[in-house]
């Protein structure tokens, strides 16, 4: 187990997140904060970076208009961005941070950006997911 794994775990606990699952071998956590719109957020120590990723919805009917709107919204997101999985059929939120100098405020800011995004943009994401 790396020092980064322990540090990230300590930060997550200090921030009050519910760690639903942790895998020491893979050095990842799955956390929830349903009040903040965060469900099954993967926090993965992939030295030298920390990957923060949450699947938002399956893309059943892709459209140019949807992708255009998501890319425009990316410009407003404080940390992280919308992304697609390798197959292009799932919309994700993804952010990466440097592990070497990661601090509590930086991790909190990244997760808060996701929470803010979910609060502000939830209805539109639901519309996209239903199509």
Automatic annotation (TrEMBL):
It holds the Pfam family CesT_Tir_1. InterPro entries: Tir-like (IPR054345). SUPFAM superfamilies: Type III secretory system chaperone-like (SSF69635). This is Sensory transduction regulator. It comes from Sediminitomix flava.
